[in-house]
Design a protein that fits this description.
mainly alpha; 561 residues
């Protein structure tokens, strides 16, 4: 009878241990306990079990367990047992994961700059109507202020990589955070239009550097078990920044709104001193002792990080940074050229589909469309819908797949713009709500797939031999497309109307859907080595690419493009 009670007590204890273990190692899935069996592979669970410790024995000598007890342990916690069947419990895994999440949240907070820069255009109507300012903002000024993120991105594209590699990602992040706060205050309290331009240009330059810096730094700071889930946080922070500036623009004067935009960056700047430097960058700079200290801070002092540090060092040595000249030569190989061309086309067609003007000219768009609801209220709805759908899309991405989501959301975005444009051209009575509904459908579909998937594909499809120069080409075309669309949208609306502009945008989404259907392979669940030959049409091309990559890596040096 005593053994039965002990078995029941052990069963309840191990069930509680299972919950604690999964919360610590899989915090996003802790509610899913259908069969009490882990969804993650057993080898990974065994590796994670090294972070556990044994239960202290309440007795000086360990008594032999009954067969029922050992069977209960093996049934409920099979991968957290040692060779003698002794149970483990969580010691520091939960704290270690929370520690890394805190670091990642600090870095992700810098992406507020992206959302705030895009959404700041909502204050321009109040800025133009403010008679207390000592300068006048014309229609041409509005066009240039909205277009500056694109033109600054064109100028900064080739300099971002070397800048990050020269200064270090964490150190550069701190400098950008402080600079971003100062530049927002400059825009808020400037007495001259020229200083407003200067502050806006500086904010746009920080916007273009923080964009690729934050996700890359997060991927180098956290463990793979939580890396994918934190992608949702990075995308959601951008949408949160947009929603915040939309709400502030509706409730506050333009100067106060702009000043409040700068306040969070000073707080994050102070918190960023707690974030250690990237161990990958420190090893590339031949600073192994500093890399060991940084990794120890990231994982906690209890966990032995020597094995992970050795793996990082081996990876850095096996994949040295190729020179720009070597990567340009590799672009002549079809296997390397095709994915770069495809991804550049995706970014260009997406921007020509009008997403940037929808988020930047939101207030003007709803006023020109004649929507009966207040334009600022409509803008806040746009921000809220994008935030919700961005989080939902990031959760669905690994379940549905890249190809079906990008194809489906591209079609829906095009249909939403086509319906909205047709109703605006037709001037149907009593249908003033249709443009708002069409924009909300567009924004929801954009947040679900069109927003995150191209950036995910950028890291999955680009071959390692041309990854840096290929990324630069894609980002250059992305920034150039933003500038072209944002600069030409106001005259297009003036001469042809909002309805015609929306139908033109729908046409580009149709082309994007065809390109996606014809050329995009599914990347979900495939390793980078599996995707290496995704754009190879013949075995000879794969052989040529492999030979060229081997030749290109013979003479390499520690530079970044």
């Amino acid at each position: 009878m005593t053994d039965d009670y002990d078995t029941i007590l052990l069963t309840l204890t191990t069930m509680m241990g299972r919950v604690a273990y999964d919360i610590g190692n899989r915090p996003w899935e802790f509610c899913d306990y259908v069969s009490w069996r882990p969804k993650i592979p057993a080898p990974r669970l065994r590796r994670d079990a090294n972070t556990l410790r044994r239960l202290p024995s309440p007795e000086p000598r360990r008594r032999r367990q009954s067969g029922a007890k050992r069977r209960a342990e093996r049934t409920l916690f099979p991968d957290a047992l040692d060779s003698k069947g002794m149970m483990f419990v969580i010691k520091d895994s939960t704290f270690r994961i929370l520690r890394q999440v805190a670091f990642a949240l600090i870095v992700a907070a810098s992406r507020l700059e992206v959302g705030l820069v895009i959404g700041w255009s909502a204050v321009l109507p109040k800025l133009r109507a403010d008679n207390a300012t000592s300068f006048t903002v014309t229609d041409q000024d509005v066009t240039w202020l909205v277009s500056l993120p694109g033109i600054s991105g064109v100028a900064m594209t080739l300099a971002i990589g070397p800048l990050i590699e020269f200064t270090g990602p964490t150190r550069l992040l701190r400098a950008l955070l402080f600079l971003a706060g100062v530049l927002w205050l400059l825009q808020a309290f400037t007495p001259y239009l020229s200083l407003l331009y200067l502050g806006r240009l500086g904010s746009c330059l920080a916007f273009n550097v923080v964009g690729p810096l934050a996700p890359a730094l997060i991927s180098e700071l956290v463990e793979p078990s939580v890396r994918g889930s934190l992608v949702a946080v990075v995308e959601a922070v951008v949408a949160l920044g947009q929603l915040a500036v939309y709400c502030l623009a509706d409730a506050l004067p333009w100067r106060l709104t702009t000043a409040v935009c700068g306040a969070p960056f000073f707080v994050v700047f102070v918190l960023a001193f707690w974030v250690p430097e990237s161990p990958y960058w420190l090893l590339r700079q031949d600073r192994p002792e500093d890399a060991a200290k940084a990794l120890s801070r990231l994982r906690g002092s209890v966990k032995d990080t020597s094995v992970e540090l050795d793996e990082i060092a081996v990876g850095v040595k096996e994949r040295p940074q190729s020179t720009l000249k070597d990567q340009v030569k590799q672009l002549t190989v079809p296997q390397n050229f095709r994915p770069v061309l495809f991804l550049a086309s995706v970014f260009v067609l997406r921007e020509l589909g009008g997403q940037y003007v929808v988020f930047s000219y939101t207030v003007y768009l709803f006023r020109e469309a004649g929507v009966s609801m207040d334009a600022y209220t409509c803008t806040i709805l746009v921000g809220a819908v994008r935030l919700a759908c961005t989080v939902l899309g990031s959760l669905l991405l690994d379940r549905v797949g890249r190809r079906p989501m990008l194809l489906a959301t591209g079609v829906v975005c095009g249909l939403a713009e086509l319906v909205g444009g047709a109703f605006l051209l037709g001037q149907f009575p009593g249908a003033s709500w249709v443009p708002l509904a069409a924009v909300l459908v567009f924004v929801s579909s954009y947040g679900l797939g069109m927003s995150p998937i191209p950036w995910v594909l950028l890291g999955e499809l680009l071959p390692p031999a041309v990854r840096s120069v290929g990324t630069s080409i894609c980002v250059f075309n992305f920034a150039l497309s933003i500038f072209v669309v944002s600069y030409t949208f106001p005259p297009l609306v003036e001469h042809a109307g909002v309805g015609t502009a929306l139908i033109a945008f729908a046409g580009f989404h149709a082309v994007l859907s065809v390109v996606t259907w014809a050329f995009l392979p599914e990347t979900r669940g495939k390793s980078l080595s599996d995707l290496k030959d995704a754009f190879t049409s013949a075995p000879k091309e794969a052989d040529d690419a492999a030979a060229g990559e081997g030749k290109g890596t013979e003479n390499t040096k520690d530079t970044n493009v």
